[in-house]
C-alpha cells in the first residue's frame, strides 16, 4: 500500500511523521457484573468520583484554551458530570449489579441513542457522550484516556476520528495535518480543520493501518496520503510551506481574468464573525446564520435584543450587501421555542420556514427586527428564508418581507424541488442562494454527518451540479418576465441578473468548484473568510468562457471523482499552488 485515499476537506501539502491517537477504550464485556463480595454502594460511588476527575481534567484544559476551543472543552466538562448519565449508571450498579464500567457504558449508550434519534446537530452530540463515556471508563480502570498525543516536534495526526474535546486542544504549531479513517466532510473535525487552515482528509479508509512514526506526504486538496515520500513530494511540501508563511491576501474585488465580476462574500454567525470577514476584505455577507445567535436561548429573544444583534453585524459592512437568513431552526439546530424534539426524522421535518406554520409570530418578530436594524444602518440588507419548497411558500415569505418594509426578499434553494421549479419560486422572491450542504444530502439521500456516506455526500456529484444549473436557468426565466427601469439601476450593476443566484454552501470555498459554479451562471460566492484569497486567485486565472467550458466538463462527467479530476486538469494553477 503506497497511498491511502479519502475525502480532502482542507487544502495543504506537508511531509511529516505520523503520530496516532490512542486506540479507543474497549467496551467492558456485555453483562459484566460486580465481583463477588463487592460493596455495590461503594462501587456506584466510584462512578461519580471518576466523572468528577474527568470533569476537572477537562476544565483544566479549558482554562488554558481560548475562543471556540474553550467553549467546547467547557461543554464537554459539563457533560462529564451530567446527572442523567452518572445517576443512571450508579443505579445500574446498585439495582442490577453491573460493574461500574459496564454501567457507564450502557447508560451512555441510552443517552447517545436518544440524541441520534433527534438527527442532525443533536445526533452529532452523541459523539460527545461517547467521548465522556470513554474518559470515565478509562478513569475507572486506571487507563490513559484517548486523546491527542503529546509531542515537542511537529507531526501528522492520524486517528479514527476526533472528539470535539480533542479537536479543541489541537496546537496548529505542532499538528501539521489531520487524517481520519472515519468522519464526513461536514464533521466537527472537517470544520475545525478549515477554520485552522490545517491540511485535512476524512473518511480515509485504511489510515488506521499506517504505522506510527512513518513519514508521509499529505495532500489535503487531493485527499491522499502517500507513504513513500520522494523528492517531488518534498518539493510540493516546501512550496506549500513558503505559501503558508506568506499567504496571499484578498484585495476585496472578486473577478475573472477578463474582468467579469464575481463578488466574494463571507458566511458568518455573529458580530465577531462579521469583524473577521470585514478584516479579510469580504465584499459583503452572503449568509448570516441568525439561528446561531439563539441556540442557547430557551425563549424567543425580544425584538429589541434582535435589533441590536443584527445592527452590530450590519455596522461592519456599510454600503455593502448583507444577506441575512431567517431562523433555520430544527434538524441539527433545534430551538426550544419553535422545534419539536419528538420528530422521528427532523431533517425532513418542521424546520426553517416551516416553523412559521406553527409559530408565525416568531418569523414576524424577526422580520420586524431585521427591518428596524436595516433602516438604521448603511448596509444593503437582503433577507432570505430557508427550506422553501413551493411557489406558494416563496410568495408568502416575500409578502411578509414587503409588509415588514424589507426591499429584497429571497429564498434558500436547499431542496431539489426548489431547484427544479426556481422559475416559479423566483416570481415573487427577488433572489436565491443555494445551500449546497443541504441540497447535496437531500439530492443524494445521504446524511451529511455520516463518514460512511462521504463519497455520496460530495458537492462534485453531477446530480447536484445539474440542480445548480437548473436553479440558474429557472432564475433567468423568472427574470425575463420582470420589467426593470434602467434609470433605477446604478451603472455598476447594469447587466447584473434580475434574479441573481448565489451559493453559500461549503462548495463555494473550493477554488476548483468555484470556477464550475461561476461557469454555471452563479452570480456570487459566499464562504469562510479564510477561503477568500485562494478562491479569488483561481478565479482570476480563468475567463468567463473558460469557466463555462470547464463547467460543462463537470456536468458531463459520470461521477463526482471524474468531474473533479476533469476540472482540475483544466486549471493547472490548482496543482501548482496545492489547492
UniProtKB/TrEMBL annotation:
Taxon lineage: Bacteria, Bacillati, Actinomycetota, Actinomycetes, Micrococcales
Chief location bin: cytoplasm
Q: Which residues form the PEP-utilising enzyme C-terminal domain?
A: 256-541
Q: Which UniProt keywords apply?
A: Cytoplasm, Kinase, Magnesium, Metal-binding, Phosphotransferase system, Sugar transport, Transferase, Transport
| Pfam families recorded | PEP-utilisers_N, PEP-utilizers, PEP-utilizers_C
Q: Which PANTHER family match?
A: PHOSPHOENOLPYRUVATE-PROTEIN PHOSPHOTRANSFERASE
> What is the recorded function of this protein according to its Swiss-Prot or TrEMBL entry?
General (non sugar-specific) component of the phosphoenolpyruvate-dependent sugar phosphotransferase system (sugar PTS). This major carbohydrate active-transport system catalyzes the phosphorylation of incoming sugar substrates concomitantly with their translocation across the cell membrane. Enzyme I transfers the phosphoryl group from phosphoenolpyruvate (PEP) to the phosphoryl carrier protein (HPr).
| Uppermost EC category | transferase
This chain's protein is named Phosphoenolpyruvate-protein phosphotransferase
Q: Where does the protein end up?
A: Cytoplasm
Give the organism, scientific name: Tersicoccus solisilvae
Q: Which cofactor does it need?
A: Mg(2+)
List, alphabetically, the InterPro entries matched: PEP-util_enz_mobile_dom, PEP-utilizing_PTS_enzyme, PEP_util_C, Phosphohistidine_dom_sf, PTS_EI, PTS_EI-like, PTS_EIN, PtsI_HPr-bd_sf
**Reaction catalysis annotation:** L-histidyl-[protein] + phosphoenolpyruvate = N(pros)-phospho-L-histidyl-[protein] + pyruvate
